[in-house]
């Protein structure tokens, strides 16, 4: 029934390769099916003005898609002179999601910026960015701890995200682009590795959905995030 031939509850293949870039304190390439995102974490000894002097750290994110990450070339946003609304919304989402898993007091007064660059898009880029962004963040924090710059681990729990939707009348896990473009309902579930919810984005794209269908999608998302969290932990060992 699914274009890929997957079962309704089956994730696309997941791979996370760390140490991709030379200079970033943490980096990985996350591949979820044909969606590939490069994630880097950069540590800075500064924080935004609104928390300066508070002793709290900050985690923020930037997101972008390369011109040929999709089937036809798109213009670089830098060439237009401004970021699009979708880009701004997604990078704010990534920052919010990752901060939810951080003890900002333990992080200390420093900022970690997660850069997520979509190399190839086939659905679920924001979910892959959040999942890979946590791996890059974990590696950067490991470096701070190894150097003795922070004394206790500020990362409370892995953070990962997965999409679910209603495709051909059935709840399905981890939509690729052919499914995403045709789904009657589209949702993104951001959760911790222990299964606690951080944020849920759900919308009826072409058909309404019931409470029972939403519960089914939540069950699928919990399964998917469990698999992603296992891949994250294996990548940072």
TrEMBL record:
GO biological process, one term: rRNA catabolic process
Catalytically driven reaction(s): tRNA(n+1) + phosphate = tRNA(n) + a ribonucleoside 5'-diphosphate
Keyword set includes DNA-binding: no
UniProt-listed CDD domains: RNase_PH_bact
Binding, phosphate: 86, 124-126
InterPro entries the record matches: ExoRNase_PH_dom1 (IPR001247), ExoRNase_PH_dom2 (IPR015847), ExoRNase_PH_dom2_sf (IPR036345), PNPase/RNase_PH_dom_sf (IPR027408), Ribosomal_Su5_D2-typ_SF (IPR020568), RNase_PH (IPR050080), RNase_PH_bac-type (IPR002381), RNase_PH_CS (IPR018336)
Exoribonuclease phosphorolytic domain residues: 10-140, 157-224
Keywords linked to the UniProt accession: Nucleotidyltransferase, RNA-binding, rRNA processing, Transferase, tRNA processing, tRNA-binding
A molecular function GO annotation: tRNA binding
UniProt keyword Metal-binding, yes or no: no
EC number annotated for this UniProt entry: 2.7.7.56
PROSITE patterns, sorted: RIBONUCLEASE_PH
Family in the record: Belongs to the RNase PH family.
Subunit structure: Homohexameric ring arranged as a trimer of dimers.
Biological role: Phosphorolytic 3'-5' exoribonuclease that plays an important role in tRNA 3'-end maturation. Removes nucleotide residues following the 3'-CCA terminus of tRNAs; can also add nucleotides to the ends of RNA molecules by using nucleoside diphosphates as substrates, but this may not be physiologically important. Probably plays a role in initiation of 16S rRNA degradation (leading to ribosome degradation) during starvation.
Protein's name in the database: Ribonuclease PH
Organism name: Pontibaca methylaminivorans
Name of the gene this protein is made from: rph
